[in-house]
Amino acid sequence: MNGTVLVTGATGTLGREVVRLLVARGVAVRGLSRRARGGGDGVEWVVGDLVSGAGIAEAVAGVEVVVDCATTQRKADVTGVRTLVARAREAGVRHLVYVSIVGIDRVPIAYYRTKLACERVVRESGLGWTVLRATQFHDLLLKFFDVSVKLPLFPVLGGVRFQPVDVREVAAAVVGLVEEPVGFAPEVGGPRVRSYRELAGAYLRAAGKRRVLLPVRMPGAGGRGLRAGGNLAPERAVGRGTFEEALERRFGGR
């Protein structure tokens, strides 16, 4: 890889790992952040905001590839991707890599609809494009459980399963796709499909906590989609890092 790669969302859970791996490979990396950052890490940091558009033309100038790891977790993501695509096209960017989520076309919840709309913008951008869908990161489940453990009763999504994946493995897949556009890349899923209840139990044991589990049934079409396994990719269980290993890193084997 000879040209510069711009990573949006470069300070986020996935973006940090993508930046780290690219730098380790000797790639010229430009990291987009909403706040100014110091140097010394092998990254050219630039300030910009995808939603407002501030600084994006400058961020993409002279860039060969853009890896979009950014998210507001709101509908504003669509605006951000449109801005990124427009400025990238003007700058002559040859390849846009967009990181998405397994099952967004099967589970009709609000954020998944937003991600699907973002994918559509990328596909219709006129740029060379790659979309990589991954199952949920270990980090996301840990955030859910960190909130739930503070409640008197620990809510558990009834009938829902997840296939959590190590973010570092997703980052490695992303970096492996930077060179050439491939369209939809093979999905990346965690090593095992497991019930939400089983994952919650593993979290509580690792955290040394006892809680009464409260079964909760997610309503509507989104709930039905999750219970039907729309968020899973068992045929793409290519990840190796387990949820227990993530718990070990978090809690240190209590």
Description:
There is one protein chain. The chain is an alpha/beta fold. It contains nine helices and eleven strands. The strands form three sheets. A seven-stranded parallel sheet has the order 3-2-1-4-5-6-9, with helices on both faces. Strands 7-11 form a two-stranded parallel sheet. The model has no long low-confidence stretch (mean pLDDT 96).
Mean pLDDT: 96
Largest sheet: 7 strands, parallel
* End-to-end separation: 43 Å
Number of strands: 11
Helical percent range? 25-40%
Lateral arrangement of strands in the main beta sheet: 3-2-1-4-5-6-9
Q: Can you tell me the overall shape? A: globular
Question: Cα-atom Rg, whole angstroms?
Answer: 19 Å
Instruction: Give the H and E element order.
Output: EHEEHEHEHEHEEHEEHEHH
What is the overall number of helices? 9
Oligomer: single chain
Task: Point out poorly predicted stretches.
Answer: none
Could you tell me the strand content as a percent range? 15-25%
> Which structural class should the secondary elements be placed in?
alpha/beta
Please summarize what this structure is:
The protein has 254 residues and is of the alpha/beta class.
Keywords:
two-stranded parallel sheet; 254 residues; 20% strand; alpha/beta; seven-stranded parallel beta sheet
